[in-house]
Amino acid sequence: MSTLDLFAPEPDDTARMAQLRQSLHAHGHSYYVLDAPTVPDAEYDRLFRELQALEARHPELITPDSPTQRVGGKPLDGFAPVRHAVPMLSIRTETDTEASGAENFDARIRRELGLGPSDPAIDYVAEPKFDGLAMSLRYQQGVLVQAATRGDGEVGEDVTQNIRTLGQIPLRIVAPALGTDVSSLPPEVAHFALGRPGGETCPSVPAVLEVRGEVYMRRDDFEALNDRQRLAGQKCFVNPRNAAAGAVRQLDPAIAAQRPLSFYAYGLGAVTPPEAGGPVWQSHFEMMQALKRWGFPVSELVKQAQGAPELVAYYAAIGQQRDGLGFDIDGVVYKVNSLALQRQLGFVTREPRWAVAHKFPAQEMLTTVLAIDVQVGRTGKLTPVAKLAPVFVGGVTVTNATLHNEDEARRKDVRVGDTVIVRRAGDVIPEVVSVLLDKRLDEPAVFTMPRQCPVCGSAAVREEGEADYRCTGGLFCSAQRKQSLLHFAQRRAVEVEGLGDKLVDQLVDAGIINTLPDLYRLGFTALAKLARMADKSAQNILDALEKSKQTTLPRFLFGLGIRHVGEATAKALARHFGKLDAIMDAPEEALLAVADVGPIVAKSIRTFFDQAHNREVVEQLRACGVTWPEGEPAPVAAQPLSGQTFVLTGTLPTLGREEAKALIEAAGGKVAGSVSKKTSFVVAGAEAGSKLDKARELGVAVLDEAQLKELLDGGA
DNA sequence: TTACCTCGAGCTCA
DNA sequence: CTCGAGGTAA
């Protein structure tokens, strides 16, 4: 007999614990998801404490899906990155905020599917677009193992600890045995039944199931939370969305647990395929109903809709109900219901073609223009910015709104002292919509772009055909120097950790730093004299500078801040030439050979390196010890289609649209959207439309898929 | 663009 | 306690 056996739990305890877990799951589901408690709170608490007591006695029997495991857990050091098995894509936004905007979507779908006016209406699902944060919940063998934020769509953050505390999110999905009649199950089990068409149950829980949805905060919970915050002398949250986002990013799950979050499921990520015993669905709606049965909160407002008219009606109806919903939404989402049609429609770059977000018109508010500032960018570009009396609009306090350039400022005729309508356009950027002219009391001066740089006083000029004024001061202009330094020191460039805008302001204003190489000549004493810069901070900056000296060619090139050379172009240049000297001395024609470098970019690079002081900066940086590994120039890939422009139309027999496009681009060709004289070839498939007619009209060569492939293989 | 969380460190006052 | 910097999200 091993010693372990002495401590073996009573078989009764094991069974009782399983039983308690199941009851608590079921009651919890009724309470949190269905909002219909099946037992009094006191009874729930009693069961919960009984389970806790048993778990205290048998810690080895605690399961990750135990209801007691929602709260607790230790504060994290940080959030671990999580790669999404299926990327979390963004969804296209319909720009038209009239209810009839839905018609554009329907028309586009019908066109893509090649449907005529006499074909039947398309089956859609319409749902509210919740204003919260996207979340992916991963279940393995039915147990919640990971909750991840969206991140960049490919890689998000692991916030499982915090998401576990959400009572609405099942910790476990339960499947009854195969052949069980779902309707005969007691309600608390039926909620977890895995549905198949026809009521048949799934043989087992899918090995993998990722549920996608939105974490949000209800308005009443938000108000209550803020009342609590006020009482506790803590600061209040500005809006429910930010409160929810903040809660999710808490390192201490105990704090996250006190923030009342909610969840709505709206889709799936990775799922075990049917061949491997996974569930089968025909439509999105059916899938959502299954999610509901499995215990996930699915909004009652998710509706099926036939064709454009019902989508338009849905948009209007939800807009009507919006204020009374109890939570914030920023629009609605339409999805093609049939999963088969979704597959057929596919994706454009990173967005599904079968879904669209249709937002409500942005909220607008009145405020006054306190001033119109002119900011100077890294390249000397002058940007007029309206300084506004703070207004709360669309959930945030707006104090600035860019006027972009002189033409834009003139077109809107914004003047100091004006009363203006502001809104948060599109996603986030505040915008001055218009001026209320009848509120203009005296006649303030029309805004004009200063002909001198507001920072350095150099002439500001507007080139022929350009919208922007630029300060001609170059490095004489402290604003440009500051911006150049910040650009060089940013993370994606040469990364000098700890060098932010406040420090750069101090360094430049004090005249300690004028050029990039001056950064590396900084002394400890000079640094330590600055405000909020004692010994420790000064040393940290010096260490960061030392570390930054080891860099890479693309980072360095990007960091130089050459006009039109962003991260992608810097990478392409580095790959193509291998060495910096080769780039610095390359004639424009050589630069043009780099993928994605056109005449404007080539000229800009040439101009930059033709200036002696820029070459001097590079030499000095090298002399200061900034280095990077240099490589060999990449052999120029065979580009049989370079210089040729293609237009795709109709459905090709084997290649998808995206595939064909990628192949053409990989071979150096360009793919355009419409046919013109400059089009080299039109590639036509089945049911080609007007583009084919246009091609014939203009006498552009027409290819079929086979001929395209021949060209790609290097044929004439 | 704004808001939120976190971290390290400086400043201030006891 | 407050600030600056850095990161994330929409």
Please give the structural blueprint.
Layout: H1 3-6, H2 11-33, H3 41-57, E1 81-83, E2 93-94, H4 101-112, E3 123-130, E4 133-140, E5 143-149, E6 155-157, H5 160-164, H6 187-190, E7 208-216, H7 219-231, H8 240-248, H9 253-258, E8 262-271, H10 284-293, E9 303-306, H11 307-321, E10 329-336, H12 339-345, E11 347-348, E12 351-352, E13 355-359, E14 364-376, E15 382-393, E16 396-402, H13 406-412, E17 419-424, E18 430-435, E19 460-462, E20 469-471, H14 478-489, H15 501-509, H16 516-519, H17 524-528, H18 535-548, H19 553-559, H20 567-577, H21 580-585, H22 588-592, H23 599-610, H24 612-623, E21 645-649, H25 657-666, E22 670-672, E23 681-684, H26 690-698, E24 701-703, H27 705-712
Parallel strand pairs: 2-13, 21-22, 21-23, 23-24
Antiparallel strand pairs: 1-6, 3-9, 3-10, 4-5, 4-7, 7-8, 10-13, 11-12, 14-15, 14-17, 15-16, 17-18, 19-20
Helix pairs in contact: 2-3, 4-11, 14-15, 19-20
The structure holds a DNA duplex (14 and 10 nucleotides).
